[in-house]
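> forwarded from #structure-qc
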């Protein structure tokens, strides 16, 4: 993928000031930083101490391919921290690290990259952190640094987005009533933002807890594949708005299934589910691939029966989702696990897509 080059900006004075503020703010962090585990703050402090005022920081041997280049490409106010893949027993989640570093540094956006075979992201931002995360995953890059560079210019509002300054001295003179109205309005906005941030914090804590439990349930080779497949479902949801709600619901139910079977089921059930969903999700993701579902969406004229093909994939998503819900019920009620969803027919359709399917006009012209 060809990446746009962004000129390097001078930030020496900002970096020096940020470094001093960074050290002071770390010392003043409240115990726990909103996280129950005390050792979670220690993790943030270790990373903060190591990274200092670096714009792009590689922590504890983690790496990306373009660290030096990315330093010059990032807008001011954005920091990137690359960490090793977290241990399953690690209590500090990447989302907590991102939020802690953002609070400590005063950065507008902090992106934490987990160093995997295919890197993962956590984002804390004054802007839309969810949109940034989806944008990063949608780049479909194994190297997280390349993905960040591709979206660098979108990470903070540009100068054109800032409110315009008043023009003329007379505009600066505001009557007392106007000042009161402005103060009330500002107070209302502040309360709304505070409420929204508290709600986001609660949601983040729940999400972090679920992610920890899910990681613990998805150990071993098959579990690792399912974990990667669940992550790919998130990316497909971002890529296909028509399927987004279906895919996110499926992802939620699959995650819930593995969390519950780890708590209530047996090791044998965990292994059986890992093996089954490895097979099922691999087939489903093949159908959801950009070369099949994505291409039919963009270029239906090049496919025979495009509406039927899209509908078949959507039915498959729904079927796997219903299977996950039924498996949750079976785990809850200590029943034998049953798997009734077979995607073999769908995979045959995907695998056997030939030039006659893709370029149907050729057959028509040949026959004429």
């Amino acid at each position: 993928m060809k990446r746009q080059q962004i000129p390097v900006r001078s930030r020496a004075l900002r970096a020096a000031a940020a470094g001093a503020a960074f050290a002071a703010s770390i010392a003043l962090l409240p115990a726990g930083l909103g996280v129950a585990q005390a050792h979670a703050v220690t993790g943030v402090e270790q990373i903060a101490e190591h990274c200092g005022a670096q714009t792009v920081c590689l922590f504890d041997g983690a790496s990306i391919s373009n660290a030096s280049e990315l330093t010059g490409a990032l807008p001011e106010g954005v920091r990137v921290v690359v960490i090793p893949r977290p241990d399953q027993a690690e209590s500090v989640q990447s989302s907590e690290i991102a939020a802690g570093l953002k609070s400590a540094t005063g950065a507008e956006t902090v992106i934490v990259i987990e160093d995997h075979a295919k890197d993962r992201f956590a984002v804390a931002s004054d802007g839309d952190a969810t949109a940034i995360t989806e944008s990063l995953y949608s780049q479909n890059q194994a190297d997280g640094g390349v993905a960040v560079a591709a979206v660098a210019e979108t990470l903070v509002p540009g100068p054109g987005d800032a409110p315009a300054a008043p023009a003329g001295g007379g505009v600066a003179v505001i009557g007392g009533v106007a000042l009161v109205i402005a103060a009330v309005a500002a107070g209302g906005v502040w309360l709304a933002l505070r409420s929204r941030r508290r709600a986001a914090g609660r949601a983040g804590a729940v999400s972090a807890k679920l992610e920890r439990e899910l990681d613990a349930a998805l150990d071993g080779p098959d579990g690792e594949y399912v974990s990667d497949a669940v992550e790919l479902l998130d990316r497909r949801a971002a890529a296909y708005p028509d399927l987004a709600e279906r895919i996110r619901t499926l992802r939620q139910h699959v995650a819930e299934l593995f969390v519950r079977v780890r708590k209530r089921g047996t090791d044998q059930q965990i292994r059986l589910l890992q093996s089954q969903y490895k097979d099922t999700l691999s087939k489903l993701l093949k159908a959801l691939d950009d070369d099949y579902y994505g291409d039919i969406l963009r270029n239906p004229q090049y496919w025979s029966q495009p509406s039927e093909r899209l509908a078949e994939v959507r039915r498959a998503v729904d079927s796997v989702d219903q299977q996950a819900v039924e498996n949750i019920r079976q785990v809850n009620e200590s029943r034998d696990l049953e798997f009734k969803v077979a995607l073999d027919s769908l995979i045959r359709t995907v695998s056997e897509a030939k030039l006659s399917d893709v370029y149907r006009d050729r057959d028509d012209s040949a026959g004429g």
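QC bot note: The domain at 12-161 is CATH 3.10.310 (Diaminopimelate Epimerase; Chain A, domain 1). The beta strands are 56-58, 78-84, 109-115, 120-125.
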